[in-house]
Amino acid sequence: MFRPLDVLLAMTLLGACASALAADRGLLDGDLGRWLDTEAAPQLLDTLDRHPRFRGETLRIVPMRNGEPISTTDRLNLAIQRALEHRLLQSTGVRIATQGNPRRCDLRTDVPYLLGVEVGGDGPSRHRVHLAIADVEEGIWVNGASKTWSGRLTTAQRGALRERISIAQPGTLGNPLSIRDAVAVANTLYAQLTCDLRSVPTHEVRLVSDEQQLDGVKRHMDTRLRASTELRSIATTRESAWTLRIRSTATLEAQRDVILELEDPSGVRPTQRLASVTVTGFGPAQTPLDEPDGHSWLSNLRHQNVPTQGVCMGRPDATCTEVTLDLYQPVYLLVFHTRGTRIDVPACGRTPKRRAGERRFRFAVASTGHHNAVADGGFYALATDRSGVARALHRHLAEAPGACRGKRNVAAIDTWLAKLDLLLTQHSGAIQWRAIHLRHDTDQVVSL
User: Fold this and answer.
1) DSSP letters of 231-278?
2) Which of 110, 125, 146, 157 has the fewest CB atoms within 10 Å distance of its CB?
3) Structural domain count, the chain
4) Could you tell me which of 131, 128, 127, 134 has the C-alpha nearest to residue 147?
5) Between the CA atoms of 47, 51, 55 and 57, what dihedral angle is there, to the nearest 10 degrees?
């Protein structure tokens, strides 16, 4: 069916690609450029046009390392992505989702396919470029949809390969904003909010926040909402008014998520998360924080100090704690906990579907020597009712630095967190999660 909006979008993206390609002119000369132009791109176009699984679907081009999407890349990889995007957009049967502006509400974020671009060494003085298409939900590589080049890069290409570039969206785990930049935080929240207004059942909200460190964000958000014709901020104390709440919750390391939530005054609808931004630079937390109520699969997390025995033995500097949760219905449950910069995954094997009921997890928490406002550890529970999503999450947890198959590498944590953030975003409608952040205090563990 002819859709004018799709044609206009394709023309816009083609124009953007042409501008980017002009900046890369000369970088894709030589053997690599000829391979992309005469072999790789035409063969990928043919595969996407002919393979029935791609009919009417969308894919996103991403940089990869060891078969996993990464949040930082290099200028050569980026040039290859742009060249492929330019060629693929010339086919009217191919939909390309960009990594770019979060204001582009017409573009899907939960794309079913990724076209990965990986550039690496291939012996002395040679390099290898590998292109492959992955099915996101099934977590598999698509047979017959991979292409590989091996050869010598030009001097310009080798220089571009050493030029690192961050592609993580501002306000994500891989590229957090500073809480001191309240305008940027508010604008990012507002951009996400305006993409989801169809799910907001009111045109007027009471904007509130109980945290002093979010006053600047609240002030700038209020300014944006008062100028909006779709969702307006009002000054009222009426209990019948819908509440748009700005709050924060701890994430891994010293980062926090600033969250925008909509609360139903009648209590009939569950609290709805509309936007979130990852930030740094927070001082001590002002109030105890937890995930919102309204989850249909997971309860709140509860913890208590327990005797040091079993899995907690051998850690004289630590205190044993037990985290308890309730599953309200059968789901796939995946959990992990953190110790400073280490990530521990209790179950590295297959993830079966769990029956409804109570679940208990015990582990040791030791002081990391940080300021009292920083967590020494945390516990995270993720639940999904989809087997494909569970497999994707399980594979990612198994690759956590220091856990299961993951190699102990502190520098790799940011990349792992960025991929987790990507998975949670891609499957936001199929995953529910809870978190609790803990600190070792003398001879007991307390929650933050």
Assistant:
1) SEE-----TTS-EEEEEEEE-STT-EEEEEEEE-TTS-SPPEEEEEEE
2) 125
3) 3
4) 131
5) -60
Domain boundary among 244, 279, 294: 294
Range of the domain at 387: 295-448
Pair 60, 134 in one domain: yes
**What pLDDT score was predicted for residue 128?**
94
Residue 156 backbone phi and psi in degrees, to 5: -65, -40
- 3-state SS assignment for residue 1: coil
Neighbours of 352 (CB within 10 A): 10
- The domain boundary, picked from 274, 294, 314, lies at 294
**Which residues fall within 8 angstroms of residue 121, CB to CB, at 6 or more apart?**
127, 128
Q: Are residues 314 and 196 in the same domain?
A: no
Q: Are 263 and 398 in contact (CB under 8 A)?
A: no
Q: What is the pTM of this model?
A: 0.45
Q: Find the radius of gyration of the CA atoms of the chain.
A: 24
Residues 236 and 195 in one domain: yes
| Mean pLDDT, the chain cut into blocks of 10 residues (448 residues total) | 34 43 70 94 88 82 81 88 87 65 43 88 90 81 89 93 80 79 91 77 85 89 85 72 86 74 83 86 51 64 76 69 85 84 75 80 72 67 88 86 62 72 79 82 59
Q: Are residues 106 and 91 in the same domain?
A: yes
Indicate whether 255 and 304 sit together in one domain: no
Q: Are residues 199 and 228 in the same domain?
A: yes
Q: What angle do CA 62, 64, 65 make, to 5 degrees?
A: 170
CB neighbour burial string for 287-296, b if at least 16 within 10 angstroms, e if fewer: eebebbeebe
Query: Are 73 and 155 part of one and the same domain?
Result: yes
How many other C-beta atoms can be found within 10 angstroms of the C-beta atom of residue 365? 28
Nearest to 447 by CA among 377, 353, 348, 363: 377
Regarding whether 144 and 23 lie in a shared domain, the answer is yes
Q: Which of 174, 164, 66 is nearest to 406 (CA)?
A: 66
